[in-house]
């Protein structure tokens, strides 16, 4: 059955979904927050790929902060950056948390513990082992009670997260989309090397408002003749390829430069997500 998210080859125009961007958050090597990232992506500041220091989530209560893993903290870093520049009440935002691998460090520790004779698994690791751990911590931090979805789609997670968010906005007025991934330990790193910790957050709305920065029109298409949009700067391109969450960098560049353009993201099943951007800032 054909749908807006599963268009088939035909002579008819492909269905698309539209969302509006209200706020942006970023956390990556050399891109400490959206303010820094915007200057770098506009060419106003040199990109220096230095790793970020450890982060203490501002909104988490002390007990949860102690239990939060580096992956959860990385998700919070971009989420809190976006929320700081949004007029939306975070408690009233639905959420989509998208991560290709979630927390492989926790998985590695659990599997290693199960391989030992005593098989003693840390209760905190067990608590953090689920794919929606970051979403759970966020709901505690801000008192969120709206719909929450956690997904992963390997290297296509950025496209999958955007599509999931756009679909959820058919029923929600506004939401927070958070993409995040952190490096894994060996031997898991050898199977899916994620070099640096990166997170990106977008506050998206169903309709335009006074704070809207841009409109995004999403179209899922067959990608036989299309390839994902890359970055001319070799260091930024290396970062884009080093982490599935960083696949959004070409979109962030257009948003930073406040121009109309289109970018392509790798999507699942050999497809491509086309994002047409209209600047409204």
Walk across the major sheet and give the strand order. 3-2-4-5-1-6-8-7
Mean pLDDT: 91
The CATH homologous superfamily name of one domain equals: Thiolase/Chalcone synthase
Q: Which consecutive residue ranges, at least 5 long each, have pLDDT under 50?
A: 1-13
Supply the CATH class of one domain. Alpha Beta
- Terminus-to-terminus distance: 38 Å
Query: How are helices and strands ordered from N to C?
Result: EHHHEHHHEHEHEEHHEE
Strand fraction: 15-25%
Question: What do these coordinates show?
Answer:
With 281 residues, the protein is an alpha+beta fold. It has a domain at 23-211: 3-Layer(aba) Sandwich (Peroxisomal Thiolase, Chain A, domain 1), CATH 3.40.47.10. It has helices at residues 34-41, 62-67, 70-83, 104-114, 123-128, 133-142, 157-168, 188-191, 234-242, 249-257; strands spanning 17-27, 94-98, 148-151, 174-181, 198-205, 214-222, 261-266, 271-279. It has an 8-stranded mixed beta sheet, sandwiched between helices. A hairpin with a 4-residue loop joins strand 7 (261-266) and strand 8. The radius of gyration is 18 Å and the shape is globular. The relative contact order is 0.20.
């Amino acid at each position: 059955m054909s749908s807006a998210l599963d268009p088939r080859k035909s002579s008819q125009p492909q269905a698309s979904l539209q969302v509006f961007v209200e706020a942006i958050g970023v956390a990556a090597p050399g891109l400490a927050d959206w303010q820094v990232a915007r200057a770098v992506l506009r060419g106003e500041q040199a990109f220096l790929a230095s790793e970020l220091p450890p982060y203490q989530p501002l909104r988490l209560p002390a007990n949860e902060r102690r239990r939060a893993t580096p992956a959860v903290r990385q998700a919070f870093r971009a989420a809190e950056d976006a929320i700081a520049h949004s007029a939306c009440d975070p408690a009233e935002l639905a959420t989509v948390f998208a991560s290709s691998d979630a927390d492989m460090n926790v998985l590695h520790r659990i599997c290693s513990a199960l391989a030992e004779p005593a098989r003693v698994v840390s209760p905190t690791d067990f608590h953090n082992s689920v794919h929606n751990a970051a979403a759970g911590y966020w709901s505690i931090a801000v008192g969120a009670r709206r719909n929450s979805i956690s997904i992963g789609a390997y290297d296509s997670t950025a496209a999958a997260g955007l599509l999931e968010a756009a679909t959820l906005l058919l029923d929600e007025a506004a939401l927070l989309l958070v993409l995040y991934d952190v490096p894994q330990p060996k031997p898991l790193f050898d199977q899916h090397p994620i070099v640096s910790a990166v997170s990106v957050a977008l506050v998206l709305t169903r309709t335009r408002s006074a704070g809207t920065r841009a409109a995004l029109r999403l179209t899922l298409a067959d990608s036989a003749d299309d390839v994902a949009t890359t970055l001319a700067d070799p260091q930024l391109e290396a970062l884009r390829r080093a982490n599935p969450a960083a696949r959004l960098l070409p979109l962030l560049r257009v948003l930073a430069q406040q121009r109309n353009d289109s970018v392509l993201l790798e999507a699942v099943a050999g497809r491509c997500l086309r994002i047409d951007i209209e600047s409204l800032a």
